[in-house]
């Protein structure tokens, strides 16, 4: 079988790192993207040794508005050099959060979050979508969050960026379906997951029930399963998370924000 190629952003830790191993096991060649070169280089070597695929990496700060275009151009160069045809699967996984009330939040962090979680994800989706749609096994996988389903006081901008990812992915999935294309457009919504996310988002002090925390490997495996099933556009990981994302559809919007605020105040 012809090997497909996947580009994974945020491959240097957490969910993206585990996704890279899962996709290598599924015989995808890989282009790994993040900022920490030492981590990417180690992962590339590991994948090249352990799996029968080709892994390459590109170091890129995707919070810069020009980065998506640069990454697209550098990817084309790598594909040419490696005799690989195109990107069949794009996984927009890189993302950051910030735990703070809006009036206490840093403007710099907000800009980074919006540029990374929304702008780069959108631009990369647009830059690669034609290749993805022309692939027999094409897929666009965007990593959102259960935070996408309701307003989240204390993480207002993060949750709003993830609502964007969910709305954007569902809309383009419908467009692609109506064009009779087989391309899979999937939005994965993890709940709280063990990774470096909490440290980066100043969330280490949160009092979270460990039973509700998934591992990055579990979320990565769930992503591969969702891709293979290919039925649902929106895939929420975990039963409790699935139930949690149903509540905002039943309750009045005002009560949902109030309830999320109360929960956040309890755990912060
Ligand atoms: N962990 C959770 O509880 C949770 C829950 C729901 C959704 N998610 C989502 O899952 C995705 C993956 O997060 P994670 O939990 O695996 O966290 P993580 O361990 O912090 O991984 C984030 C990845 O994104 C990369 N990244 C961060 N800033 C970047 C930038 N400016 N440019 C390029 N790459 C950047 C990081 O690599 P470098 O630092 O090397 O660049 C890292 O590889 C995110 O979109 C997050 O919102 C996480």
- Sheet-strand content, in percent, reads 5-15%
Number of strands: 9
Strand order, largest beta sheet? 3-2-1-4-5-6-9
List the helices and strands in order: EHEHEHEHEHEEHEHEHH
CATH homology superfamily: NAD(P)-binding Rossmann-like Domain
Q: What is the name of the CATH class?
A: Alpha Beta
CATH names the topology as Rossmann fold
Ligand catalogue: NADP nicotinamide-adenine-dinucleotide phosphate
Q: How would a crystallographer describe the biggest sheet?
A: 7 strands, parallel
What is the number of domains?
Answer: 1
The gross shape turns out to be globular
| Helical proportion, percent range | 40-55%
Number of helices: 9
On the 0 to 100 scale, the average pLDDT is: 96
Architecture per CATH nomenclature, i.e. the level-2 architecture: 3-Layer(aba) Sandwich
Q: Structural class given helices, strands, pairing?
A: alpha/beta
Question: Runs with pLDDT <50, length 5+?
Answer: none
Overview of this protein structure:
The relative contact order is 0.13. The chain has 268 residues and is of the alpha/beta class. The termini are far apart. The chain is built from 9 helices and 9 strands. It has a single domain, classed as 3-Layer(aba) Sandwich (Rossmann fold), CATH 3.40.50. The model has no long low-confidence stretch (mean pLDDT 96). A 7-stranded parallel beta sheet has the order 3-2-1-4-5-6-9, sandwiched between helices. It has a two-stranded parallel ribbon with strand order 7-8. The radius of gyration is 18 Å and the shape is globular. Helix 3 packs parallel to helix 4 (107-134). NADP nicotinamide-adenine-dinucleotide phosphate is lined by residues 10-16, 34-36, 39, 60-63, 93-97, 116, 143, 145, 190, 192-193, 195-197, 200, 216. Residues 10-16, 34-36, 39, 60-63, 93-97, 116, 143, 145, 190, 192-193, 195-197, 200, 216 line the site of NADP nicotinamide-adenine-dinucleotide phosphate.
């Amino acid at each position: 079988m012809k090997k497909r190629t996947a580009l994974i952003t945020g491959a240097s830790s957490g969910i993206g790192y585990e996704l890279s191993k899962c996709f290598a096991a599924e015989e995808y060649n890989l282009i790994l993207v993040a900022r920490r070169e030492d981590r990417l280089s180690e992962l590339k070597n590991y994948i090249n040794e352990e799996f029968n695929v080709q892994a390459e990496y590109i170091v890129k700060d995707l919070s810069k508005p020009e980065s998506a275009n640069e990454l697209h151009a550098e990817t084309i160069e790598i594909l040419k050099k490696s005799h690989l045809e195109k990107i069949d699967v794009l996984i927009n996984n890189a993302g950051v959060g910030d735990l703070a009330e809006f009036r206490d939040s840093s403007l710099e962090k907000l800009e980074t979050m919006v540029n990374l979680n929304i702008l780069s994800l959108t631009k990369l989706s647009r830059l690669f979508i034609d290749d993805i749609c022309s692939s027999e096994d094409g897929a666009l996988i965007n990593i959102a969050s259960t935070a996408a389903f309701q307003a989240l006081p204390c993480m207002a901008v993060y949750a709003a960026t993830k609502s964007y990812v969910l709305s954007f992915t569902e809309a383009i999935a419908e467009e692609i379906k109506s064009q009779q294309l087989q391309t899979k457009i999937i939005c994965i919504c993890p709940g709280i997951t063990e990774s470096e996310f909490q440290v980066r988002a100043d969330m280490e002090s949160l009092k979270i029930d460990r039973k509700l925390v998934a591992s990055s490997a579990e979320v990565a495996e769930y992503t591969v399963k969702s891709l293979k099933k290919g039925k649902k556009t929106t895939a929420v990981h975990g039963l409790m998370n699935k139930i949690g994302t149903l509540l905002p559809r039943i309750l009045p919007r005002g009560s949902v924000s109030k309830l999320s605020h109360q929960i956040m105040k309890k755990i912060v």
